[in-house]
């Protein structure tokens, strides 16, 4: 007897469900599954949330504990880690590779919160926190991964040990400047580590590209300008979030307030020519009076032996020509401040002198003796201006 017929006196055509083998009466609706082309009865077909009707064998049940909905092949998502199937409403996506994830297998970066699969993030070797690749760093010495908090403390990190450039040759007014050279991307690490002007290096939370690093220089004098310029000329561009903070030696006459007015005195064009960002609205170097603490201010007064000017942009091939000009301006202003005890300078005079000292940076050729002489003459001229104007500007507020 044909499986699709029953003979009782005469042949009556019937169709069997290919899933349950039950007959489908001639007057009933037989449905053909679009995925496998099987003919099924009404009890063996499933309607997916998308509206497609398929046989039960081609349907998949969502593995989420609180769902159990049936899905067609087009609507189901497979977890890339444990390989269970989920409906769209209970599937997470890795934000890097777009792979599906279940609740048990998804990971969130402890720093920024993005959801990732295991392959698109790394676990800190020290603390065990899971981080995205923007916030975890691979040590080039031990080949282990560390979060930005643990990287600086692990054994391979090179903490800066600074040397005194005036050791063995005492100076009456020992001006020094130091740099934080941030490189947001791959670069010649070994070349920087071996350079005699580099004191140490570490990771930096603001640098997101693979291979990023911040280098700290030794305290330098004006005689080191050419050498450090050649260093930054080796850095490719663009540099992402990199900056180039400067540190100047602190004395009782070097105050954050005085340096605030020195920066404020520069025109927008002058600041740009010195690779400064405080006139551009950058959130990393806001120039605000009395706001001299933290990592979002142009003048940072948090350091014991230096005052930090965070206004400078990245130092690299495109800005190297501005480095000598910036250091020359800082040196000239530093020497100017050294000539006047605290409370004796007017804010207008500091701003005017700042613009005057900027002219010393034009067509700069590093010649420390000439710079010192020019700075002294400019300071004498500024002092005469102050003395002449003292009788008519009594209302001005002394610098902090």
Protein architecture, described:
The chain is an alpha+beta fold. The protein is built from 8 helices and 26 strands. The strands form 11 sheets. It has a 6-stranded antiparallel β-sheet with strand order 22-23-21-24-26-25. Strands 1-2 form a two-stranded antiparallel ribbon. Helix 6 (about 320-340) runs antiparallel to helix 7 (about 345-360). Mean pLDDT is about 80; it is low at about 1-10 and about 390-395.
Shape: elongated
**How far apart are the first and last residues' alpha carbons, in Å?**
108 Å
Helix amount: 10-25%
Q: What structural class do helix, strand and pairing data support?
A: alpha+beta
Mean pLDDT across the residues is 82
Tell me the number of strands: 26
Question: How much of the residues is beta strand, in percent?
Answer: 15-25%
Specify the biggest β-sheet.
Answer: 6 strands, antiparallel
Name its key features.
400 residues; 6-stranded antiparallel β-sheet; alpha+beta; two-stranded antiparallel ribbon
Topology record:
Layout: E1 5-8, E2 10-13, E3 15-16, E4 23-24, E5 31-32, E6 39-40, E7 45-47, E8 53-55, E9 60-61, E10 70-71, E11 77-78, E12 85-86, E13 92-93, E14 100-101, E15 107-108, E16 115-116, E17 121-123, E18 130-132, E19 136-138, E20 145-147, H1 148-151, E21 177-183, H2 189-194, E22 198-202, E23 213-217, H3 225-232, E24 246-249, H4 256-265, H5 268-273, E25 299-300, E26 306-309, H6 320-338, H7 347-358, H8 368-389
Antiparallel strand pairs: 1-2, 3-4, 5-6, 7-8, 9-10, 11-12, 13-14, 15-16, 17-18, 19-20, 21-23, 21-24, 22-23, 24-26, 25-26
Helix pairs in contact: 3-6, 4-7, 6-7, 6-8, 7-8
């Amino acid at each position: 007897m044909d499986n699709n017929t029953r003979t009782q006196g005469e042949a009556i055509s019937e169709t069997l469900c290919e899933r349950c083998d039950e007959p489908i009466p001639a007057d009933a609706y037989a449905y053909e599954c679009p995925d496998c082309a099987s003919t099924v009865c009404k009890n063996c077909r499933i309607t997916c949330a998308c509206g497609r009707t398929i046989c039960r064998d081609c349907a998949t049940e969502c593995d989420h504990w609180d769902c159990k909905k049936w899905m067609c092949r087009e609507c189901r998502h497979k977890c890339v880690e444990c390989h269970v199937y989920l409906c769209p409403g209970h599937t997470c996506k890795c934000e890097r590779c777009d792979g599906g994830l279940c609740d048990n297998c998804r990971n969130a970066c402890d720093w920024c919160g993005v959801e990732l699969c295991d392959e698109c993030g790394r676990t800190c070797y020290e603390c065990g926190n899971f981080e995205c690749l923007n916030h975890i760093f691979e040590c080039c010495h031990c080949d282990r991964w560390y979060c930005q908090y643990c990287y600086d403390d692990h054994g391979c990190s090179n903490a800066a040990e600074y040397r005194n450039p005036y050791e063995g040759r005492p100076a009456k007014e020992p001006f020094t400047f130091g740099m934080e050279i941030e490189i947001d991307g791959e670069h010649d690490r070994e070349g920087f580590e071996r350079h005699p002007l580099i004191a140490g290096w570490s990771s930096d939370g603001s640098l997101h590209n693979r291979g990023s690093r911040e280098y700290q220089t030794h305290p330098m004098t004006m005689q080191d300008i050419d050498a450090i310029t050649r260093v930054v000329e080796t850095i490719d561009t663009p540099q992402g979030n990199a900056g180039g903070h400067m540190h100047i030696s602190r004395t009782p006459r070097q105050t954050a307030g005085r340096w605030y007015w020195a920066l404020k005195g520069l025109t927008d064009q002058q600041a740009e020519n010195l690779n400064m960002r405080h006139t551009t609205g950058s959130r990393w170097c806001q120039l605000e009076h009395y706001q001299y603490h933290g990592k979002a201010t142009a003048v940072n007064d948090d350091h014991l032996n230096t005052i930090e000017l965070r206004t400078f942009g990245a130092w690299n091939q495109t800005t190297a020509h501005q480095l000598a000009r910036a250091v020359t301006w800082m040196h000239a202003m530093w020497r100017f401040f050294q000539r006047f005890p605290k409370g004796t300078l007017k804010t207008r005079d500091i701003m005017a002198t700042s613009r005057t000292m900027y002219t010393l940076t034009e067509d700069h050729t590093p010649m420390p003796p000439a710079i010192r002489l020019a700075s002294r003459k400019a300071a004498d001229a500024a002092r005469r201006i102050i003395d002449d104007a003292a009788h008519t500007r009594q209302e001005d507020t002394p610098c902090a």
